[in-house]
Amino acid sequence: MTGIAIDLLLWGFVAALAVAAAMRSRGLMWDGLRDGVVDFLRLIPRLVFGVIGAGFLAEVLPQDLIVAWFGPDSGILGLTIATIVGAVTPGGPVVGFAIAATALKSGAGAPQVIAFVTAWSVYSLQRLVMWEFPVMDHQAVWVRIAVSLPLPFLAAAIATLVGRP
Amino acid sequence: MPPRRQISTFDWSTGVIALAAVAAGVTVYLREGWDRFLAILLGDVGVMAYMMPKVLAGCVIGTLVALLLPREVVTRWIGAESGWLGFVVAFLAAAILPGNPLTIFPVAGALLVVGADVGAVVVFITTWALIGYQRALVWELPFLGPDFTIWRIIVCLPLPFVAGILARMAMRARNKGGAA
Known about the structure:
Chain A is an all-alpha fold and 165 residues long. Chain A has helices at 2-24, 26-60, 63-70, 75-88, 93-105, 110-122, 125-135, 138-148, 151-162. Chain B has helices spanning 12-68, 71-78, 83-96, 101-113, 118-130, 133-144, 146-156, 159-179.
């Protein structure tokens, strides 16, 4: 049910944007639609392996090990390891979320998974090297890296404090 | 408009994931048999069917917004002289702008070039990375479920501002050190 509601929302947004583009020029609208479809087609291999991988990996991974390292009782050490793993996990939305889903299914604690997702989102080593350093002032990148260090821990702390998810 | 860069179809990270997926699949088959293998596979195909229309919509939204909202507009919004308003505008712009690294970082780089302060740019990038609705709807929700996704975003709401304030403090300390 929520799935259909989200589909409607997203496709409504697509329709509105397509109309807005067509009002500027028909060619602009077709360019946008075509490029979007091409991006989608290029993402499919990642999507297939990411989703199927998450399902099988969750089944194969030793659950007691995951619980011991990243479980709800793994404390600061678990958070730290989750943060480091998140920071060095390569970019692309499939990879990080597939790992997070696998960990969650295998018994990792929610704050630990949040720390992982936060670290992966703000760092993603591969993205830093490939996209951020080439187009940004290097000093600004280093400042961003430094000030982002506390964020995964802060997110985990807030999650623990509010007791959700 | 920055030149459009293509998403590559298959890179090394996809290769690693593919290898892990195949290895895990074979392990499940050998250890637990065909029935369990098929049950997991069918479950995953269901997840994929759920994701496909959202991912397609997300991709089209990304390209259309990039075409309709050239980076000059965003740059003008966040501007050179920002202060707290700059933080808020950077937060809103990054939360609304769909996009991948190919579009976000050129915008952030351009902001720096026109003289936006590093704090606002850090808010912009951190918000895009943590709060962006497009990534949440298209990717996070199907993998992790609505409860986790919604609460993760709520928990992360203050973080861009924390990072932005720290960045502004760091730059101020640095400039002071340079002057002395």
